[in-house]
Amino acid sequence: MLRDKRPRCKVDFIRAKATGCVERYSATLGFLLDNGDEIVGRHVVLCLGVGNAPLPVNLSGLPAEARDRTIENPWRLSWLRRVEASDRVCILGSGLTMIDQVLALFAQGFRGKIDVLSRRGLVPHGHARVPKPPADFDPAALPEKMSEILRQLRRESRRAGDWRSVMDTLRPKTQALWQRLPQAERGRFLRHGLPWWNIHRHRVAPDVYERFREMVASGQVSIHAGYLQDVSQIDDQLMLHYRKRGASDVASLECDWLVNCTGVERAGIAHSPLLQQMMREGLIKADPLGLGVGVDAASAIVHDNPGAPALHAVGALTAGQFWEITAVPDIRTQARAVAQRISAGIVG
């Protein structure tokens, strides 16, 4: 629809990467592109998303052949065709991306062994086959301390008979709840509660969950909790050394393939040279908790440069303000509000 030439609004799609940003005349920004062109605009919306979280160890010391069997971006699915049916695979990270990759491997005919290593060894829960209605409580009445919030949510879960009902009640109110949390409590949640939030909030379909649990029960998939220390090559195998969670001893995992499923990089500025330059020039500020860029409640970017052009951001870069802002319905609502705000300024 956006490529349709009939609507009065013109949309151009440019296949290039923005490599730099310069302030032009009259509060206008110019973006330098890697194809040699430049685009300029007085109203700019950053929709850059976030990058893949990097591997937690430096692999530069590995031979090229070993690095070739280290998959840093699992969504480039061509790597699946190179895996032999009896190979051994080690996946770093135990969230939804891990489950997707496990199922994709077995759909390709893979029948080898998969080891999953994450710091806590937590995996997503499944949705109920017959969901209960949302729990009957008001998220707006929750306290502002994480310990008290957790205590009350546990009480509501016991009352509802299924914690999923409580999560379903929270879902449409999560942004409002996040925005009224003090900064210290947000940080406490990120340090201590985030892994448990992820496995309860981001669930998988019942059939997928049962299939995955069958693989774990059969020994095809093993979950390990620990901290990766280093990766080496012994003969033609990759050897991972990790410290077990809650212990001081170091264990090892041997594999043919190492796959990075640690998720997205929450510090959304670090993955983008463009954003780093814009921050150096005072056009944007990093969110205090490292959740992308700082924006206000209207998605306008906040900064300390009074002469800087007005900028907005949409999507995962605004997680510091909105927290849950990666699902399409949330982004669609945010994008509509930003578009209306910019349009009102143009028309006015």
Features:
alpha/beta, seven-stranded mixed beta sheet, about 350 residues
Describe this structure in words.
By secondary structure, this protein is α/β, with parallel strands linked by helices. Among the domains are: about 65-125 and about 205-260, FAD/NAD(P)-binding domain (3-Layer(bba) Sandwich); about 140-200, no CATH class. The protein is built from ten helices and twelve strands. The chain has helices at about 65-70, 95-105, 145-160, 165-170, 175-180, 185-200, 205-220, 275-280, 320, 330-345; strands at about 20-25, 30-35, 40, 45, 70, 90, 115-120, 220-235, 235-245, 250-255, 255-260, 310-315. The strands form three sheets. The protein has a seven-stranded mixed β-sheet. The protein has a three-stranded antiparallel β-sheet with strand order 1-2-3. A two-stranded parallel ribbon has the order 4-12.
Ends: how far apart? 27 Å
Radius of gyration: 23 Å
Q: What percentage of the residues does DSSP assign to strands (E)?
A: 15-25%
Strand order of the largest sheet: 5-11-6-7-8-9-10
CATH architecture of the domain at 64-125 and 204-260: 3-Layer(bba) Sandwich
Mean of pLDDT: 90
Structural class by sheet pairing and helices: alpha/beta
Task: List the uncertain runs.
Answer: none
Work out the helicity level. Answer: 25-40%
CATH topology descriptor of the domain at 64-125 and 204-260: FAD/NAD(P)-binding domain
- What is the CATH class designation of the domain at 64-125 and 204-260? Alpha Beta
What would you give as the CATH superfamily of the domain at 64-125 and 204-260? FAD/NAD(P)-binding domain
Order of helices and strands: EEEEHEEHEHHHHHEEEEHEHH
| Anisotropy-based shape | globular
Largest sheet: 7 strands, mixed
User: Can you count the beta strands?
Assistant: 12
Q: Treating each run of at least 4 consecutive H or I residues as one helix, how many helices?
A: 10
